[in-house]
Amino acid sequence: MIDLHNTDWSGASVKIKDAASLTPYEYGVEYGSPARGLWNIVHTGMLLPESHQIFVCAQGCLRGVVLTAAEMGAQDRFSTIAVCENNVLDGDMEALIIDGVTDVLRKLPKLPKAVLVFTSCVHHFMGCDLDYVYAKLRERFPQLFFTDCYMYPIMRKTKTPPDPMVRMRLYSFLTRQNICDEKCVNIIGNNYPTEDSADFVRMLRGAGFELRDITRCRSFREYQRMAHSRLNIAYMPPAIPAVRDLKERAAIDYLYLPLSYDYKEIRENLERLADCLDIPMIDTALLEAEAERAVSTAARLLGETPVTIDYTATPRPLGLAELLLEHGVRVRTVYADVFIPEERPVFERLRERYPELELCATVHPKMVLRAGGARAAAAEAGGEPEKVVAIGQKAAYFCDTPYFVNMLEGGGFWGFDGIVHLAEAVCDAVINEKDTKKIIQIKGWGCCC
Question: Which InterPro entries match (predicted)?
């Protein structure tokens, strides 16, 4: 039996007081936990209505994306082209893509409106002329929209990893328009629809604005209407490349209103939106009071129960930890492999005020020892495992707890209203057990496709 208390966690875990930077762990061989709720590029690509995805890569690499499409029941919107050894030796990569995509499209019962072509590592290693490829495809199918997407793992360590890249390419069919819908605003770059009760949504609708979002589009024509909107709003970090690209290509200005758990920052974001569109400011005093009530209620219900948080639940796990700690919640561990620069101020505050907060990696090889260890040790000793409430699937997995908030990417919550929803979800998690193993093995949790 592994003794978790005496295990050497160096490189995988550190007290925040000892963390030297926002990347406090060792990196090398990586461990992949079975918490699979996060969306991948296939799930995100399926958000584009009336589109078809074509993946071009080696058969071994195709297994994962094929299974994703099958799990979603979206095989009719998904095709593959296998790259074989002879294609590499003969140097006919361009012809393989052009002829393969042509064959796929001509065999479909009905042509899609748009095609997402995913090329892979081998095309870039060999210097495949993708500009020529897409020019020929557009020449053969002038009625279709094509865009370049990438299944290129090396991009994980670049400024635009595959996830932000595919979110950006989703909007590549929106181009500059002469007509602007002055009372329309887009929400850009989310996998999940934003809750109608979110602070900025209520403020915009109260001022007579229509909100457009790819997560709610049901036709390609409806999606194209987003090109006429006056402003783009992004609040998830992976959406930033998309709004910047749209400003450059389609001349649609944007506001980045980051998901936050800091009351002051939430107020400032709402004020920026009101000033930008010249609309009345929502009453934040009432919203803040409601958020305070909800968090205080959750804190009382938790009592001495420890809480853990992971980065899959929110891009700002340290900000959420600070909110809960400031209300007396026993936040024990934050699971994240890196913290975004936006979290630098709260990182410094937590180092000073809560120095014993544990930061823990999720991909370090030692983490394979943590999952289930506490429960197994308790069972061997003839006792009950400690009750822990987790926020996020990975935190639930590593703590081996049935008491968790099943939330990914912020859950579509934003602002004071988002804090209320989260606090209510924590209260539910304290009381009601979930089947953790069954839930976290579902890939792309909540993907409506």
Answer: Nase/OxRdtase_comp1
Q: Place 305 in a pLDDT band, splitting at 50, 70 and 90.
A: very high
Give 419-423 contacts, CB < 8 A, sequence gap 24+: 419/261, 419/291, 419/294, 419/295, 419/323, 420/290, 420/291, 420/294, 421/195, 421/197, 422/320, 422/391, 423/291, 423/294, 423/295, 423/297, 423/298
pLDDT at 176: 94
Residue with tokens 């074989």: 84
The whole-number pLDDT of residue 449 equals 44
Q: What's the CA gap between 154 and 48, in Å, rounded? A: 25
- Asked if residue 344 lies in contact with residue 319, where contact means CB atoms within 8 angstroms, the answer is no
Q: Which residues pair with 114 in a beta bridge?
A: 51, 145
**β-pairing verdict for 229-234 and 181-187:** parallel
Q: Taking residues 100-121, report their average pLDDT.
A: 96
| SS3 state at 176 | coil
Residue 362 has pLDDT above 80, yes or no: yes
Structurally, what CATH architecture does the domain formed by 181-277 represent? 3-Layer(aba) Sandwich (3.40)
- 181-277 shares the fold of 4-35+302-440: yes
pLDDT band per the 50, 70, 90 thresholds, residue 92: confident
| Count of beta carbons in the 10 Å neighbourhood of residue 359 | 25
For residue 351, pLDDT over 70 is answered with yes
DSSP 156: G
Q: What CATH code is assigned to 4-35+302-440?
A: 3.40.50
Compute the average pLDDT of residues 86-94.
83
